[in-house]
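Our collaborator T.R. sent over the components below with a one-line note: 'Predict the complex.' Nothing else. No constraints on interfaces, no templates requested, no preferences about which chain binds where. So this is a plain run: every listed entity goes in together, and whatever single assembly comes back becomes the starting point for the next discussion.
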Amino acid sequence: MKKFFSILLTIFIPLSFTNVSKAAGHMEAEVIHWWTSGGEQAAISQFAEAWQEMGNTWIDTAITGGENARGTTVNRIIGGNPPTAAQFNISKQFVDLVEQGLLQSLEEVASAEGWRDFIYPPELIETCEFEGEFYCVPVNIHSWQWMWINNDVYKQVGLPVPQTFEEFLAGAPTIQAAGIIPLALGGQGWQESGMFDVVASSIMGFPLMQSIYRDKDVDAFRDGRFESVLNTFRELNTFTDEGSPGRLWNDTTAMVIEGKAAMQVMGDWARGEFAVAGMEAMKDYSCVIPGKEKYVALGGDVFVFPKNDDPKVKDVQLAMASMMVNPTVQANFNNAKGSLPMRLDVDTSAADACMQMGLDLIQNPDAIMRESDDWNTPAFTNAWDDIISEFRNDPNYTVAQVMDDLEGVLTSGL
Amino acid sequence: MPLFRNIASMIALLPMIVISLTVFVGCIIYSFVYSLTNSKLIPVFNYIGFDQYERLFKQRKWDVAVENIFIYGFVFTIGCLIIGFLLAVLIDQKIRGESLFRTIFLYPYAMSFVVTGLVWKWVLNPTFGLENSMHMWGFAWFELDWLVNRDLAIYAVCIAAVWQGAGFVMVLMLAGLRGIDEDIWKSLSIEGVAKWKSYIFVILPMLRPMVVTAVVLIAAGVVKVYDLILTLTSGGPGYATTTPALYVMENFFKRADLGQAFAASIIMFISVVCILAPWAFYEFYLRNKYAAN
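Returned assembly:
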């Protein structure tokens, strides 16, 4: 059976290429995305350039902030003026759009090009597949599980680069005494909850996270390890600066780059900022996956293609979807972005030490970690994150109270 | 038949009546209906009863939002009235360069709340703003961390709002003060009443219509405060400065939680009605009744 399919594929792949090239000619595509920082701009222009090289026009609609960009996309779809392509995260964010039949199925090009064979890891296929059809294109894998460390700072105070949160906390007072901010954190909800999840996975491990976030197991939640996560998180927050509330993530990364701060917990998109600043991985800065067990989380971005009344748009959308998974485009895009490609057969010789670390890890299925929003609705994750954010900002909010409130969310059935 | 008394003007008003009914009443009904569903990213009619309201009232964040709107409403209204009145009285002292000062004081009102929010965000930011400047000038003891202090952040918002609104109240009050008859001032000085006493006990009561106008205009701005907070604090630190409007917008556009946003907006609507209804009853019913008698 499998052989039969691969024969079919070998017949259809060349066919599909001729199809696409026939449909080509001049195509215009408007893409909504939220890639506005220096490193991100460099990445999205890889897509734009590849698209323009095919003789097409790329209309860039960049909107700061993922939430704002997604809001715009949804409003435009409902308002009857959908963009050609729009960015979402690898998550349940766009499930409603699929269920209401508002997205273009990409099955035609997906089965023709054999996406199911090369998309790796297979969890990405689960994200995009609904009732056997592809509705999104995963373009990259982003993992939150990183500490970004300015090596000069640690050299200056004579400490080794920390490998765990415990080591970091042990050295933090020394760094503070040297007049440097130990922990750079932007006080926005998503940054706080993102860092919290990194602390959580590095201290309690993925299996326990899975029983809490996926299985809603109250006993696992109450077994004491979650409390120690909360305590560590609270201790970490005593080492931030008072300019933290509301600061953007890339401004925060800049503090580490400039040596004003020692460390930031941020996803691997921060690597792009270091690259733009001309810093070299492991030499000028270190990227560390904290904890004994090392994980790489399956975050990242997808593009969806909203249905359009104009039948010609479908060809444009399929052509663009095909362009995004192209191995060369994938290599260029992910090298600029600092993320991992969504297939293993791309040329990663340009990868730096940090990206190589991620590439090595992701080939081990046991090191692949899922995140809360892979299993839970935005209502659940938002209620959860609000509590975490409040815990970070209100020193009178006790660990015991937080545990009760989080259990309330866990058992709410949201 | 009083209904057909002014048939021409009724016809002229018809488009307005139709628009108000469909847009306002229609949207309120629509919001209420969908607040009974579990709509997420897009409105879907999936009836779940009053669960959204139950969830809303369990949210710590909503409590904070409601508390904030009361603090903001109180401080902003009182602050604008006091400072506005004081400025008006000072300008009324027949000072030199009056029009210059009037322009300066009114100028903030010409700006949008977005600009006000951004300006004060920079001023109050402890790492680049006033605090930092004072430190660099050698005043190491100077501390101004309102914007990042969760207990004081809402007052920082109030300061920015009063800065913007006070000039407007000043202009209203000044117009009122200019309308006071010279003879009143003359008789007050003959009686030997102290100037501050005459302002507070004689002139202020005479300015009642101005005060009422100012309060109504300011209060209308309180309920819908959104842009100022969004630019100044984005509801932070944590969610310490969130307001009902911010909560609604956040659930609508950012969190893909439409049902919750509809429920919150209906509660906002009901609270406004609760405050306005007694006043409207007085204004449109009782007063007409007495006037008719």
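Summary for T.R.: Chain B has a mean pLDDT of 87.
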